[in-house]
Amino acid sequence: MIISAGEMADKWADSQTFSTAVHFDEVRKVALPAGEAVVSGWYLLRFLDHTFYVGESVNLRARMSQHATKWGTEISTVRLLPQVASKQELKRRERILTRELEALGVPLRNVVNASMDGDRDALEELIPATAQRRWLADPHAFNAADATPLKAMAAQEIRYSTAARRYHEKTDAAVSTELLRTFLESCVPVPRATEFQYWSVSTGTFGGRRRLCVSVGSMEVFVLGENLSGFLNVRRSLLAPNPKAEYAFQRQHPRARLEHTEYRDADGDVIAVECPTPESMLGVLNDPQIVAAAARLILDIMRKHACIYTRNHCPQLVQSIYPGDRSNNVLPSGTSTETTVPGPPIAAPLFPDTVHPDMAVHDGSMPSADSDELGDIVCYWLVPPGPKKSRRNQPEDFLTRGEWRMDPHPRFEAKVADMLPGERIAVRTRRNTSGDDVPFDRRGNLVSVMDFHLTGTITANPGDGCSVSVAWDPAPAHPRQYYLYTSQDTVWTLARGMHWIWEDLIAFAFDGKPQRNLDDLRNNPFWSDRFGDR
Length: 534
Prior knowledge:
By secondary structure, this protein is an alpha+beta fold. It contains 22 helices and 17 strands.
């Protein structure tokens, strides 16, 4: 029996859990009604000529309006796959979905792997340029008029439940929350709508030293430390373009100071306003000139690209500012990807119908990064078992329970919360050896080695900050050894495409490859005196 391209596309869409088909002229009334939270995800358009189009958007309702303008009555039906996801994840999976359909022989209107226009306004997908200009003229008033409900993020809330609890247990949590509220409402374009995809807020990162950190694009813009000292990044050209302006700033804010800094996203036009106390930070956030300089920087970055740090986003901090908003959200019927609670109709959003369209060089340096810094890329996790003397949390326990677990420790809670389902995890121990089985001449020196006991795939993160559920691979008969490049970090994060040493370690730990970089490591300046070629 010959299967038509349309039937093939429908079977494929069913396997991907897309919603049932909706007539295109009804989709914004039936599946994406006005007044609900901004819905992101993927979609499959079917045209009257039996061609198809796979797409993604952080705002599916607005994207449908865009397609109506472009193709009008040519579109027959649409199938939706809503999910709260970062822009990076939306685009990554769109590429996969497009290639899958293309491989099935389904005729597509997509321009596969087309490059993006470098001048494209990334924020215009959600906020039209005219609205951006109105916002910049008076951010606080513009934000106050927005009634967009918060996105449903049940899975993200679970992962960061412990971090959120620790945040709210602080005796001065109300102070940090009020500072966050003032910042968001004065400096961030419609924070309810742009949350997660365009900005994120984390808590407890950097070993618990940060009370909160707001990130936009690939840079931090508002940070409070554990003692509520902090800094705000702003456009230098608008606040302190010369020494005279810096002097005027210091006279007006004697307890704050300006720190020259560099961020790639800021294109060289940035300066940090550092505040030693929450009172001085509040004074800064109530200064119209400083707020305008911060707002301009944030808008410019959002227009360049979406936030890359959604992995670290703690939704509960946003709910503490807009209580009750998230629990009312409902995704399209039959396609929910988060647990939500239906509620009464909500006031319409401010703009419900927007219509707008290497690896590091092999130079001998050591890679250095953390999950707090890596952003929205696939991470690989190296973790330890419990101490043998404790007889708890041993590899055999992990296999039996289908989990990895460590004793609770606030320093590592944020890292464990960052672990995502689908990412790979390995249990390893580290030791120094003087054995004769070392595969090079150790010249009587001790050699650092990691023993790899288990590898698996994370299946769930309960949000307790000390465990994840894991589907473990079959355990090896004997641990595999990796030499020299070892770390004592309790939770060690790696990623592909970052450094040649990480590439080798990931391939060894998760792909079953042999260690191929021993000669390079032995002759690296760090080890060459002990193990290098003479």
